[in-house]
Amino acid sequence: MPNRFVISVMSFLAVFMLSLLAHAQKGEFARQPGAVYDADKKGETPMPAPRHDISGIWEPAKTASDGVQATGPKAMPSDGKPEHELPYTPLGRRAFLSNKPTFGVTEVAAAYTNDPVPGCDPQGFPRILLHNFRASEIVQTANQVLILYEFNRKWRVIWTDGRRLPQNSEEPRWTSNDPPESRWWGYSTGKWVDDYTFVAESNGFDDRSWLDNVGRPHSNALHVIEQYHRADRDHLQISVTIDDPKMYTKPWVALDKFSVRLQAPTFDIPEMECVPSETAQYNKEFADPAGAGLEGKVK
To answer: What is the pTM of this model?
Structure first.
């Protein structure tokens, strides 16, 4: 029997994408209740950005769905175009072809996916940015930058106290004495490179996660570089570069100056949880009837 949880997740995604299409056909755009978008502030004069400050509650600047990248990261979608072909090593290409996503050029039917997320493994980083980036809150302390994500209510710690990344045996440029612990969300350090640009680096990743929603792989040698540039008071531009010498012959840009907008400090980030009891009810009422005739018809 097809995996019920996978079917429910894919059914939800299908309904979600169709709802976005319906909004677009009506000339509307998806929004979080209470959020402000660039379309709401046409003609505004940008105010100067504060120095050394990326704190606040941030929402994708265009629409609530602008950060939902079902077919791969915004800068490099899995669409079959030559300019979006990644520089795989032989190992990387084999790993990519062994993954079975439900979106992109190698998509399969939901019953055959081996995507770890529907199986309740953590989405991990950087997939949280490259697949389903929603409202998030950035908190700065004396020693850390904390990022709190809406999707599945996750958080990350980026250390800013001057420590180095742990030593990665595959990458001698990291010079700490301790090997990195394998983590779904990696180990991150960061610093200001100018008054308005904060750069973070991460390693120590668990290689069971995917980079994105279309099955791009990574190894335990993954090194992620994030850049957060405060363009003005109300906008933050996020860029992400992937560096994994086991899977890719050179670094590549997955997110290029993705714009998010500052929200009021009273903005209430809604819950977006995976709830097993609700999934079971959804399966009973919708997914099971819809999947009854699926066997024998999948790819």
So the answer is: 0.83
291 contacts 7 by C-beta, under 8 angstroms: yes
In a domain, 227, yes or no: yes
Answer yes or no: is 293 within a domain.
no
pLDDT tens-digit profile of 120-177?
A: 788 899 999 999 899 999 999 999 999 999 988 899 999 999 999 987 544 444 444 4
Q: Which token pair is 146?
A: 């904390």
15 Cβ contact partners less than 8 Å away, ≥ 6 residues apart: none
What is the chain's alpha carbon radius of gyration, rounded to the nearest angstrom? 20
Which tops the pLDDT comparison, 117 or 213?
213
Range of the domain at 53: 4-36+49-273
Per-residue H/E/C for the chain: CCCHHHHHHHHHHHHHHHHHHHHHHCCCCCCCCCCCCHHHHCCCCCCCCCCCCCCEEEEECCCCCCCECCCCCCCCCCCCCHHHCCCECHHHHHHHHHCCCCCCCCCCCHHHCCCCCCCCCCCCCCHHHHCECCCEEEEECCCEEEEEECHHHEEEEEECCCCCCCCECCECCCCCCCCCCCECCCEEEEEEEECCEEEEEEECECCCCCCCCCCCCCCCCCEEEEEEEEEECCEEEEEEEEECCCCECCCEEEEEEEEEEEECCCCCCCCCCCCHHHHHHHHHHHHHHHHCCCCCCCC
The answer to whether 54 and 226 are in contact (CB under 8 A) is no
Please give the tally of structural domains in the chain.
1
pLDDT of 18 reads 39
Flag whether 22 is in a domain. yes
Q: Which pLDDT score is estimated for 286?
A: 61
Are the beta carbons of 218 and 194 closer than 8 angstroms?
no
Residue 296 lies in a domain: no
